[in-house]
Amino acid sequence: MKHYKVIKTDDFKKDFKKLDNSIQILILKYIKKLENSTDPKAYGKQLSGNLAGEYSFRVSDYRILAIIKDNELKIYAIKIGHRSKVYDIQEIQYNLKK
Question: Signal peptide: which range, if any (predicted)?
Fold first, then answer.
């Protein structure tokens, strides 16, 4: 079985640093769960509209927005934020480093 690797973008890292320590711990545990999974899509919700092609993963009241690349076995974590604000972004821009 092959497992996925989570790649954290600069935007994700910036948002992550702003979170309380207790939330950071929950998120790191969740990321570890995704990395140990052979099917991370089963844990998330596929988004539509402006965020089509992305997935949302729920961690308490926070959401991780990510792109899953099955052919690379990588999950690009692009954004994290409170559920009331994370989707308000007009357009999320990111660079996927290979």
Answer: none
Q: The dihedral of CA 5, 40, 68, 59: what is its sign?
A: negative
Global pTM reads 0.86
SS3 85: coil
Q: Which of 41, 33, 36, 32 is nearest to 69 (CA)?
A: 41
- For the chain, what are the domain ranges? 5-82
**Distance between first and last Cα of the chain:** 22
CATH topology assigned to domain 5-82: YaeB-like fold (3.30.2310)
Cβ neighbors of 86 (< 8 A, separation 6 or more) are: 62, 63, 65, 79, 80
